[in-house]
Specification:
alpha+beta, 9-stranded mixed β-sheet, 19 helices, 25 strands, 34% helix, rod-shaped, disordered N terminus
């Protein structure tokens, strides 16, 4: 891995006044003073105006003496838009739900506070929406129950930051950056003011009286439903009931008084209810908060007609919700910044940093490179901090460790060839098994190609219906012109107005109905009753049944005329009595329906828990942005360590790979061994003798196999740095060696250079052991040994294991 080198820019700049040009002593002194005492912010770390940490562009751990300062917030148009967006969403949802009749909110508002309140409130909501969208001014005097413009302007001001030090641990230093949530502060202040202004809610508890008020409303609601059905039945069977029955129902209805309870009187006038309608998106709530506490919770064990199982479960667990805490939270932990600092336990540590910029996680480019060519040195520890991770994001690190062959690529290739050569030299061609093995080695089959497949509620209750009665109170007189029967026979017809009404003279009830129908409506066809109103038909039927003991005298016209007039009077009296009953029932239905509607308006308030006591300001300790530090375990040598940084969203399993780095863990060498063949450039003589023979002189071997020790005196050798002309400083070594044939007689010393690690070119001096003789009388009198200089030599050496493979010693 190669890390690009860039010069970091200072985050905090220090501006010095002009000191003049007459003397350089003062500025020089000031420069060195500041350089010594100022915190080491010159590497670029700091906190920007948005509260994000800016890491230094360095691989060095942070100085533990570094102190960060809270930033000065600038006008944050994004934050302004976000605050307006939150308010606007509340206002728009409230407007939408008030305009939508299916929500019954308009119905409830009108029933509880009246039509004028509803229309004025909706009008002001629309004006507030216009301001939040376009900045248009609204009339403050009409916004009695809504946020005011001046308040909103304060809410969208820049949020101030505060900073304090957090936990101190060995190896890390924590800073906590806090920001005031002005919208939450506004809501909490408004809640506190409304709570203090509302005496009833401050002294009220969920006690027997409070519960009895709700139970009274619910029992009345049940009663009005039953009474409505009863009145419907009485209306349909009006002749089966009398005024006594109606009076009994009237007494029951008069006892229903939804507006007479302390609870409903408070709801109609409470500021803590009216002022928070917009915040609760139009819902009427006893508690403006989105949650409650156990002692103030509406008892789950009590019956509640308007609470379903889900609502009961929610109500039962409200005190467990974070929403209750969030309403009182006015300070947010904006950023939890953790800095890896210098420690005695980790004197040699490499820091590789990542930073979340917008939605992208990127590696911070360092301006120094302790991590040369991707190799981890001995005792070096990796520390990987990731800064400014949003609370809805997660960052994970995966590591993978693999074995590593510690030799250069050139040596690897040479070893393969040496191994093949070793098979030939050690076993011979006559061995068929050897031939097969050589064949397999020389004819390497290509690996099979691999392939990976990637699997890419509107139940509207009609509470009242207008009765269209067909009954009219009429007092029509009987026309005196009656057609008489033929001399002495019963009357067979009578004339009413211009209509001739035939009589049966047998069916008294039928004749009465015909006469009464014609006298009331003047229907031409009195023989057909198919179009008669059902109610009027029932009225006629009920009357003639009730009038069955009064007869018509068919004997003469005068007699029947008198009877008919009396019958009509009796019918009108009977009809008036029924009309009075119907009117009483209609009035009672209207009154009962009004009570029912008002009860529904109150009982639709599902969340009936009282607000808790005054809330205290709280700080949310869950940071909006946080730092995560990874410290991967460094494997033993030789290994390859690969780490992968993945980023994803909280609550989802999908991860995205952000970065992947590979490191090689090796132990560099101070010493190494080699074997090779050397060549001495000069001729040299070797003098020797056998027994008492006279000495003889012969030329020494210029080519000799030798083995020796290398000392890398400049830098330690890394065999994996195998590029030619790279890392030359670690290729030089001092060499001392001996010949293999006569180890104690040939000595080599010189300078060695690894052309590639493992292939060494040596240049130096060849020394050898030589004998000196003193001959007297043709015989050896004295013999002495010494070291002679043979001349310069050069040698090409390889690693012992390579030579061993070549001669068949190793596999």
């Amino acid at each position: 891995m190669e890390v690009q080198t860039k010069r970091s820019t200072m985050y905090n700049r220090l501006t010095l006044k002009k000191l003049g040009t007459k003397s350089l002593k003062a500025p020089i002194f000031l420069f060195f003073t500041l350089s010594f005492f100022l915190p080491k912010l010159s590497k670029g770390q700091g906190i920007d105006s948005t509260g994000k940490f800016v890491p230094s562009k360095s691989n060095d751990l942070y100085d533990p003496k570094i102190m960060l300062s809270p930033p000065t917030p600038k006008r944050d148009t994004v934050a302004e838009k976000e605050t307006k967006k939150i308010l606007l969403e509340k206002v728009e949802k409230t407007i939408l739900r008030l305009e939508d009749d299916s929500t019954y909110l308009k119905f409830s508002y009108v029933k509880i506070w009246g039509k004028d309140f509803f229309e004025t409130y909706l009008f002001n909501l629309r004006l507030l929406r216009e301001y939040l969208k376009l900045g248009t001014h609204i009339k403050q005097e009409e916004s009695l129950f809504l946020p005011h413009i001046d308040e909103i302007k304060d809410i969208i001001k820049p949020h101030n930051f505060t900073l304090k030090e957090g936990k101190k641990q060995n190896g890390t230093k924590e800073f906590l950056l806090f920001r005031k949530d002005l919208l939450a502060k506004y809501l909490l202040d408004e809640y506190t003011k409304d709570y203090k202004d509302d005496e009833w809610v401050r002294i009220q508890e969920i006690n027997a009286e409070y519960l009895s008020n709700w139970r009274k409303l619910e029992s009345w609601f049940t009663l009005t439903g039953k009474l409505h059905k009863k009145l419907e039945t009485m209306e349909q069977n009006i002749f089966d009931f009398d005024l006594t029955d109606i009076s009994a129902i009237s007494e029951q209805i008069k006892k229903v008084d939804p507006n007479g309870l302390p609870l409903t009187k408070w709801i109609k006038t409470s500021p803590i209810v009216q002022n928070w309608l917009w915040f609760n998106e139009g819902d009427i709530r006893i508690n403006p908060l989105p949650s409650t506490v156990k002692d103030k919770r509406y008892p789950n064990e009590e019956p509640n007609l308007f609470f379903g199982p889900v609502q009961k479960k929610l109500q039962d667990s409200l005190e467990k919700l974070k929403a209750f805490e969030n309403f009182a939270v006015t300070t947010k932990t904006f950023n939890k910044i953790i800095l890896p600092i210098k420690s005695e336990d980790r004197p040699d540590t490499l820091m590789i940093q990542y930073n979340m910029v917008g939605d992208s996680l990127k590696r911070v480019t360092a301006d120094t490179n302790k991590f040369k060519d991707g190799y981890i040195k001995d005792k070096l520890q990796l520390v990987i901090p990731v800064y400014n991770i949003p609370e809805n994001k997660r960052v994970l690190m995966d590591t993978d460790k693999k074995d590593l062959i510690y030799e250069s690529r050139a040596i690897t290739e040479i070893n393969v060839m040496a191994e093949k050569l070793g098979l030939v030299t050690s076993l011979g061609l006559s061995n068929s098994a050897t031939i097969t093995k050589i064949s397999n080695l020389l004819n390497i089959q290509p690996l099979p190609l691999g392939r990976i497949n990637f699997d890419e509620n509107n139940n509207k209750m009609s509470l009242n219906a207008d009765i269209e009665t067909v009954l009219k109170k009429t007092d029509k007189g009987l026309n005196t012109s009656i057609w008489t029967g033929v001399g002495g026979q019963p009357v067979t017809a009578v004339q009413i107005g211009s209509i001739l009404v035939r009589l049966t003279n047998k069916d008294l009830k039928e004749d009465k109905k015909r006469i009464l129908w014609t006298s009331q409506f003047g229907k031409d066809n009195i023989d057909s009753l198919k179009d008669i109103s059902p109610l009027f038909e029932k009225l006629l039927q009920a009357f003639v049944e009730d009038d069955r003991y009064f007869f018509l005298d068919y004997s003469s016209m005068n007699n029947i005329k008198l009877d008919i007039n009396k019958m009509i009077n009796r019918f009108n009296a009977f009809k008036n009595k029924i009309v009075i009953r119907l009117q009483e029932i209609s009035n009672l239905k209207t009154l009962n329906s009004g009570n029912n509607e008002l009860l529904v308006a109150y009982l639709r308030i599902n969340q009936r828990s009282l607000p808790p006591e005054i809330l205290k300001e709280k700080t949310d300790t869950a940071a909006m942005y946080y730092t995560k530090i990874f410290v991967p375990e460094i494997p033993s040598t030789p290994k390859t360590l690969t780490y992968t940084i993945n980023e994803g969203t909280v609550g989802t399993a999908k991860l995205k790979e952000v970065d992947k780095l590979e490191f090689k863990r090796v132990k560099t060498q101070l010493f190494d061994l080699s074997v090779g063949i050397g060549y001495t450039f000069s001729d040299y003589n070797i003098t020797s003798n056998t027994g008492s023979d006279l000495p003889t002189t012969e030329l020494g071997d210029k080519f000799q196999f030798q083995a020796g020790l290398h000392w890398y005196f400049v830098n330690r050798l890394n065999k994996l740095n195998d590029r030619i002309f790279k890392n030359t400083d670690e290729r030089f070594s001092l060499y001392v060696g001996l010949s293999l044939k006569k180890a104690l007689e040939n000595y080599y010393t010189g300078i060695s250079y690894d052309i590639v690690p493992g292939v060494k070119l040596i240049v130096g001096a060849h020394f050898y052991k030589n004998n000196r003789f003193k001959i007297i009388n043709n015989a050896v009198a004295e013999k002495a040994s010494g070291i002679s200089y043979a001349g310069l030599f050069t040698s090409l050496n390889l690693e012992p294991i390579t030579i061993g493979k070549a001669i068949g010693l190793f596999k």
